[in-house]
Amino acid sequence: MIPDYFAQYTSVASIKIPDGVTSIGMYAFQGCQELTEVKLPSTILNIGEDAFSYCSDLTEVTIPGSAERMEPNAFYACTSLTDVTVYSSDLHYVTPNKLRPDSTPETAPGNYFLRTDQTLEYGQSQYPEHLRCLAGSTTEAYCKAAGIPYELIDEAEIPTEEPTEPTEEPTENPTDPTEEPTDSTEKPTNPTEEPTVPVEPTTPTEEPTNPDEQPTEPEDKPGNDGALGDVDDSGSVNASDAAKVLIAAANIGAGKASGLTADAEKSADVNGDGNINATDAALILQYAAYIGAGNPEIPLTDFLLSKKKTG
Residue 216 and residue 226: Cα distance in Å, rounded? Predict the structure, then answer.
C-alpha cells in the first residue's frame, strides 16, 4: 500500500506504481503540481480520498479493471485533466462528502473527476472532456445519475485480454527448449570451454579489488551514490524505487520475504537502520522531488546528511 500523505505537495513529475500495490492512501499525491503522468498497476483495488487532488498538470489517467473502490475527491481540482478511462466494470464510488453524510454521488457528482476547485459556485464545475467507461458498468450508471458526459469504450479495447497471449507463448517455447537440449547435448564440449568465458566474472572479481575507488565514483554521478535508493537498479532514484520499497515493506510486515535481492535490500534501507519500511520510501520520494525541482544533482547520501543538519 502507498501510505497516507506519502508524497503530498512534492515536486514528483512521474509516478509508475508497480504491480503488487493494491491501495493508494488518502492525500498520497495531493498537490503534486508538476505531476504529469500516473501509471496505476493492474493490481490496484482502492484509490484513497484526495489521493491525486490538486495535481494541476495531470492531463490523463487510466483506472485499471482491477479497481473496486474510489474514495471522495480522488482526482478533485485536477484542472488539466481532460482524459479519463475507467476499465473497471464494478468501481464503487464512496459517499463523497464527510460534512454531508446524506450526500451521494448523485447529489455531489463532481468530487471524483472534477477539474475545478471549490472557489466556483456549485453547477459551474467542469468535467474531463473525455470520460470513457464500459457499457453497463457502475461508472456509466454513476455518470447517468449525476448528469456527467461520458463515452462508451469497446470491450475489445480492454487490455485484460492481452495477458492471455503471453500465456500461450510460454507453452510453445517449452517445446523448443526440449529440442535445444538435444543440441546442447552436443555442446557439452563447448560448454566446457564456455566455463572459461564465465571466467569473465573474474573481471568483476578484479573490480572488487578496486572497491576503494568505486565507492567514490558513484558519488560523483548525479542521482546515484553507490546504488543507495536505486532499488530497481535503473541508474536513478525515483518514485518507482519508493514503490518497490513499500511493496517489500508490506511483504516483510506480512511475514514473507521482501521479494528483493540482497543488493536491492541494501539499496532499500535508505536510512541505514536495518529495516525496510515507509520511512525509507518517503526519503526516496523527498530526494526525487528535490532533484525534480531543479536543485543540484547531489548524491542521495549528501541529501540525507543535509536533512540531518537542517533538523
Answer: 8
Count of structural domains within the chain: 2
Q: Which of 135-149, 219-233, 246-260, 264-278 has the highest mean pLDDT?
A: 264-278
The residue out of 123, 156, 189 marking a domain boundary is 156
pLDDT value at position 58?
93
56 with 80: CB under 8 angstroms? yes
Lookup result for grid cell 512521474:
14
CA distance 249 to 219: 27
3-state helix, strand and coil shares in percent for the chain, rounded to the nearest 5: 35, 10, 55
C-alpha cell of residue 204: 568483476
Report the predicted TM-score, pTM, of the whole model to 2 decimal places. 0.60
How far does the chain reach from its first CA to its final CA, in angstroms?
A: 28
- pLDDT above 90 for 161: no
Q: CA dist 10 to 57, 208, 291, Å?
A: 13, 38, 11
Cα–Cα separations (whole angstroms), residue 190 to 68, 86, 134, 195, 199: 55, 54, 56, 9, 14
Cα–Cα distance between 45 and 43 in angstroms, integer?
Answer: 6
Q: Rounded to an integer, what distance in angstroms lies between the CA atom of residue 300 and that of residue 228?
A: 7
Residue 262 placed within a domain: yes
Percent of the chain with pLDDT over 70: 68
Distance CA 87, CA 156 (A): 11
Of the two residues 174 and 26, the one the predictor is more confident about is: 26
Query: What CA dihedral angle connects 55, 57, 60 and 66, to 10 degrees?
Result: -30
User: What is the per-residue burial (b if ≥16 Cβ within 10 Å, else e) of 118-129?
Assistant: eeeeeeebebbe
Could you tell me if residue 31 is inside a domain? yes
CB atoms within 10 A of CB 59: 13
Residue 71's CB: how many other CB atoms inside 10 A? 21
Domain-located, residue 166: no
What DSSP line would sit under 283-305, residue for residue?
Answer: HHHHHHHHHHTT-----HHHHHH
